[in-house]
Specification:
The structure holds two protein chains of two kinds.
Chain A (H helix, E strand, L loop, with lengths): L6 H18 L8 H23 L7 H19 L3 H21 L3 H25 L14 H4 L4 H23 L8 H5 L6 H10 L8 E2 L10 E2 L4 E5 L5 E4 L11 H12 L3 H20 L7 H12 L3 H5 L1
Antiparallel strand pairs in A: 1-3, 2-3, 3-4
Chain B lengths: L1 H10 L10 H24 L3 H26 L3 H31 L13
Classes of the chains: A mainly alpha, B mainly alpha.
């Protein structure tokens, strides 16, 4: 059976990484945090490089993968080891941006930018607000001290053992199965989305001067079939001397289905209604957040009466009293 | 236009409609699994409530990487659609969690998760 990485190398890297993270977690006495972080980084590097060496030069991911993966994992390590919450949140933003880079390499441009806008732009800012709301400011002239719960991890050994057991099991099972799966779709099947994009097809043909005088996209093929058959790679044009076919080999590069087009079709045609459900989830979360964080004000009877009068704009009661 | 396509070529794994090999997929899955494990360790071992929730977001990210890598491998956009919903749930979770954190902080004036140990009964 094909393996992506030798199990011994994988488990050694896991043990090394566990030792590194265990050392790197914050503790009271200071401790060898930096050394731990280096060991953990080395373990991750060993695992990925061993995998790349085994895969051979033909199947390697692009060089940007290694850069973004290193930044993402390093940022993640810093999120859980930094004693100051504000820095942890900032390192999380770094992780997000590196992850967006990984998405770009995976040709998921829309998700990459949505990730940066939604996560780094909205969610993390909320986190920073709450962190700053919930920190005790140091008194005048005093140096800020870190709280005890930030500087001392709870059960670092048990936590890392649990985490790396999970990682070892996950990677073992994934690498066993991944070698045997085959892609379900081919490039031709992605192009079948063009069947529903006649305006785009016509515009691209016009832009690249592939239509002769008077020619336009056919309404239907001469045999009555569809004018565009993306899966078969055929486009019919008519209006010239005779209807003719433009084959896939002649298509300009601009013709290929873009990420945003494919995602739009998938989201709104193949899974209609899910957007509504997402909207309901967000609405419920908003209501919940408002109800939860509302401050309850204690008032005695007289204060309530005064407030009610004030709100109704009625001052006659006060004059009477 | 030309620089744009050059840039896309430079960045993209291969030209988009070509599928990538399963060895490349394994690289992404490893990154995803490692990030998930780091998030889990942080959630279990850190005591600051806000950092704990940051670690759950880290685990969401890891799941997102795996979903998009599989979507790219199968040339199927459903993986990306799913990540949109992961983002939605993450946003909803962040709103609720931070509201709870503010509530808990008002009660005990501390973000220590250990302060609430009596909840375990």
């Amino acid at each position: 059976m094909e393996q992506f990485i030798h199990p011994l190398v994988l488990y050694t890297a896991c043990i090394l990484g566990a030792a590194g993270i265990c050392l790197a977690l914050p503790r009271r006495a200071g401790g060898p945090q930096l050394i731990g972080a280096f060991i953990a980084a080395a373990a991750g590097g060993i695992a990925i490089l061993a995998m790349s060496l085994k895969a051979g030069p033909a199947a390697l991911p692009s060089i940007y993968f290694y850069i973004f993966a290193a930044v993402a994992l390093g940022g993640a390590l810093r999120v859980i080891t930094h004693p100051r919450p504000v820095y942890a949140a900032l390192y999380f933003i770094l992780t997000i941006i590196a992850t967006a880079g990984l998405f770009l390499i995976l040709s998921a441009e829309f998700m990459a930018f949505a990730l940066i806008i939604v996560y780094a732009g909205a969610i993390l800012i909320t986190y920073l607000f709450v962190i700053m709301l919930a920190m005790q400011a140091p008194a005048e002239g005093e140096v800020e001290v870190l709280t005890e719960y930030d500087t001392k991890a709870r059960e670092p050994l048990a936590a890392t053992v649990a985490g790396f057991l999970l990682l070892a099991v996950l990677t073992t099972m994934m690498f066993r199965g991944t070698a045997e799966i085959a892609p379900v779709a081919t490039a031709a099947q992605v192009d079948s989305l063009l069947d529903d994009l006649p305006r785009k097809v016509e515009r691209v043909l016009e832009n690249h001067n592939m239509l002769e005088e008077g020619e336009k996209l056919a309404l239907a093929a001469p045999d009555g079939g569809p004018a565009i058959d993306g899966a078969a790679g055929i486009i019919w044009v008519e209006g010239g001397a005779e209807p003719r076919i433009i084959e896939r080999a002649d298509w300009p590069e601009e013709m290929s289905v873009k990420n945003i087009e494919g995602l739009g079709f998938n989201l709104l045609r193949d899974h209609p209604g899910t957007i509504e459900i997402a909207g309901v989830i967000l609405l419920m979360a908003m209501l919940g957040a408002v109800v939860l964080s509302r401050k309850q004000v204690q008032m005695d009877e007289e204060a309530k009466m005064r407030q009610a009068r004030l709100l109704s704009g009625d001052t006659s009661g006060e004059a009477g009293a | 236009m030309n620089t744009m396509t050059d840039l896309t070529h430079l960045l993209a794994q291969t030209g988009f409609p070509d599928s990538m090999g399963s060895a490349t997929l394994a690289h992404y899955l490893f990154v995803s699994a490692a990030m998930f494990a780091i998030g889990l360790i942080g959630f279990v071992s850190r005591r600051n409530l806000i950092i704990m929730f940051l670690c759950t977001e880290l685990m969401f990210q890891a799941a997102g990487i795996a979903l998009i890598a599989f979507g790219r491998f199968h040339l199927d956009f459903t993986g990306q659609t799913f990540v949109i919903f992961v983002l939605t749930v993450a946003a909803a979770e962040a709103a609720m969690a931070l509201a709870l954190v503010v509530l808990l902080f008002r009660r005990k004036e501390s973000l220590d998760a250990g302060e609430w140990a009596e909840l375990k009964g």
